[in-house]
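The pair is set out directly below:
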Amino acid sequence: MIYEVSQKALDLGMQGIMVETHPTPDQALSDAQQQVTPERLHEIIKALSVRTSSVDSPGFQQELDELRGQIDRIDHDIMEALSHRMQVVHKIGDAKVRHGVTALQVKRMDQIIQKQMKLAEELGLRSDYIQEIYRTVHEESVRTQTDMMRQAGHDVDA
């Protein structure tokens, strides 16, 4: 992990890191498993990339600004979609309160996850990324509906 930690430190603008080195790490008197040979340390240092946080290029800055503008518009659309989703969650919560149905329905959560995992695969998205998003979204939906049931005076298991 020395390379990964070193590269991250460079990317974050750290002034340095400490790496233990020994000509024969297995014979080192302390922290033998944490040491690398001087040759390996040299390879790690050569493989590191020095990157900057900005570039003095108007073309690059314009491209970056345009792409960031796209991200901002997409983020706005995501927020609107989440707001609309929560409006529907409230309607579902109202129906559940009226009919005495529990807020948490594990089978439904599993259906949502399976459906979204299939779509994620089709769209080339990492399944763990999408799973985390939908678990968070679903947890907020359940929390909202549970609060609605409490406000309506229904007993809810915490």
The two ends are 42 Å apart (CA to CA).
